[in-house]
Amino acid sequence: MIVIQPHAEGATLAVRAQPGAKKNAILGEHAGALKVAVTAPPEDGRANAAIVEVLKDALAVKRSQLELLSGAANRNKVFLVRDCTPDDLAARVREQIG
């Protein structure tokens, strides 16, 4: 079960990053987090920026709605999705991982 928590501005989503992958994709669930693979290397925040792009497209939200709350230099990250209820976010995540 992917960890999605309520937040004052929306909902938070646990993400497990896989930088340096062959393609950008959502790979499913890993230890309670949404596993996101990106081709960008984990240097100078490039992988984090690529993860934001993947999440933006997959969850059908605006870039301005996504914010990295924790884990900037770690594979385990927490993103804030503004203006999205935990139930709505969970439904969008389920659509992506089947």
UniProtKB/TrEMBL annotation:
Belongs to the UPF0235 family. One of its GO terms (cellular component) is cytoplasm. PANTHER family: UPF0235 PROTEIN C15ORF40 (PTHR13420:SF7). It comes from Limnoglobus roseus. InterPro entries: DUF167 (IPR003746), YggU-like_sf (IPR036591). Pfam families: DUF167 (PF02594). This is UPF0235 protein PX52LOC_06726. NCBIfam families: DUF167 family protein. Gene3D superfamilies: YggU-like. Signal peptide: none annotated.
